[in-house]
# Entry
Amino acid sequence: MAPRRLPPPYHLRSKVTSLEERFKRLNVESEDKHFRKFSQSVPPRLVERYLEILEELFKHFRVAPGNLELGALTLKVATGVIILAWDKISSAFGAKENKSIEDKFVELAFLRRYPDYYENEQIDWEARASIFSVSLDQGRSILERATEPSTVAVDVVRKGYLSDYVGRDEIVTPILSTLNENASSWRPEEYHAPYTSLIGPTMIGKTRLLMELADEICVVYICLRLPNSSGEPKRSQLATEMLETPLGADLEVYYVQLITAILSVTIKFFQSASKRKDRKELFRAWYQHHNSPNTKFYSNVQSELKRLTGKNDAVHQLILAAEKLGKTHILKSSPLKVLLAIDEANTLLDKPKNRTVSSENQSEEPPLFRFFRRALRNVPDSSGFFAILVDTNSCVANFSPRTEDDPSCRSIGTRAEPFKLYPPIYELRTMDRMVPADPPRSWAELFLPERLCSYGVPFFGSYLKTKMRANLSVAVDKMARFALNKLLCSFKEGPIKITESRALALLGPTIGVPLHGQARLNSQLMASHAAHCGYIDANRDSQYAFYPSQPIYALAANYYLQTNEDVLISCINSLTAVLSQGDVGPGDAGEIASRIILLCAMNKTAADMKTAKETSADLIGVKHISFPDPVPVIKFLETLTGISAHELPLGSIDANHKRKLLEHGMMFWNHFMHFSERPTTESMLECLHRGLALQCRSNQEAFDQVLTIYLKDQFEDELDEANVTFCGIQVKNRKYDSELKNSQGKMNPEKAKIEIKEKTNPYLSLYFTLQNTPPKKKENYKRQDNYKLPSNGPPDYRQASLVFYGLDSFHFLSPGLKEALKQLIDIRTDLVSRHGKRKQGLDYVTDFFLRSTARRLN
# Structure
């Protein structure tokens, strides 16, 4: 049963009436009654948005009193009276030729049919347009199923808020110290306003951090989550006052009054508290008090706000309230006395919906945040009041822009310094906090889902911990699908459009992609695709996003790419387009391609092994996403080459080492991570623990990628460093590969300076020469001869080696995948290559070169 909607606040009721009058002016009398019901059941801002779109469409379609039939038809489509596929609707209205009108039509119909889901950012355009062909009830069922993963985890989120907090000294203490310093340093002549922003990916623990801060200081928490959202934490009551601003009000003054009202009510609570009460206990009592709908906090703020509205000295009232902070028991002992924490703060970026028809152009209207920040400037210096704006879906520039991009932060006068902004906070060290202190001791422990899910953000480990008594395979499947939805920023079932951001979000957690230099994509990936913030410079000139090692995200992305090859091809094409805009050289492109090839081989081998194990019952039942089994080296090589491993020309390795490598060698990894040091036995064993392969540093000797191999004896279960060895891959992406003939003698642990505990262990060296073709076929040629790496120097009886000439040597890759990889490895970003074979362009470029170079090119 849907919750009963409360009537709108008094100052909004007249607004509803004016909206109904506005609809009547459209002269669609048959819809009056239905519109009235709609306008009274949804927030006024949505009604106003609906009318704005409708008026724009009527204007576009030239719906006039003499042509009301088209207007009525538009409304029948919008309300769901007419049910047709979107392509037929768009053709009937001629919307296909106008993208803007097409988008407006979809927005109109979706808002009218499903207002509860309208503001859900997880439902993309394709999903909204796709449900026009079904009934309203069917559409609602589809939306409920599509958004179910977000509600599956609500109980876990709630339990997470109450669980023991791990790592307080490393997480809470330094951030609290920063906030105290910020509050102490606030000066209106130096800083623009007393606020900062908290930046972090989804589920990193931003809200839980605020709860932990509330044990140490007074935190006033306001969550601006959308009214009908099923997410946690729930929308705060004060969100209405923050967002539904009074009609025609001076918004800077209004926010000054609202801040004053909140401060006044907060101070009264602490003034009335017993001085004998423990400090932490009192802060916890306050946090529960002001977040509970069963206390008078909200009504007290409303009353105080109403009282202040009748006064003309808003700033003076704020100063008086701030002065009381320094005299209030408990609060006065800390530099930071009150922290106003605004969660889900991206809503403040909306433009005010409180303007009258005669108000200034809406397109030029500043967002609510701009007025809120101006109000914060009126806070007296050294008062101990500070604000923090928190949100996953907000780009850094929204809240803490560069000084050059924000006119209000610029200096006043020729000698004045520009106002500074407090740097955003992003060092939230919650990664791997759920990982057990003791590493796995046995082979079987390596593959426990609850252990693998403990790596990364705390949420996934917490979820499986709460579901241990339930069906574990179902729980892992739900988590993987939830993680996939987070990466794609979409809860739509079935095919979705692969944008640049989605492509990088699928490749980032698996092969690792360079994101530096892609400012626009960095922002999008951090905001909506679960990427982490690695660094933001002091002036916000640049930000660096990346995907750390998180096995659950790698599992989700690999599953999606393995089962949808067209998506993988689209991702590679998008990556090629992104990289070609920068300064990525052929060497880097070749290494990226090699990681894609290796991962495809690993995924295919694991999938083939899983299929071979399936029974007839498994084929009938529901297939769950699950972590793969470890892959034998012998099967991995057979996938790479398409040839039985025992027939491969593995170089100088002797029979005993070959048998040990092929019969006992096992690999377990599903993603790559950049490693800035030389690999060691210790680091390679740790990679095995988290299912990880290493992308070597740029100046790593001998190898570009290193895959851990564990020599597993079938009778031994205990893990031993002495059984660790590796597969090293060297990649060359050049047509004339002069290093090939000498590579065999260089690709060993000694030349690579890789510390191996058991130096007699066999190892595997693979050489990828991606632009080369195999040598000419000799007499008695066999296909496996193409994989024989030329010998060089004295034989190494530990080394098994192979060479791969060009993309055609990887027979398991489809033609479409090879073509996409070919485009990737052919990236050339120098001026000459960008012009291709176009003579006019080449002649133009050579004018900038030395004459000797120009003559050679011509």
Notes: The chain has five domains: 10-148, 166-355+365-409, 444-580, 631-825, 831-858. Residues 166-355+365-409 form one domain.
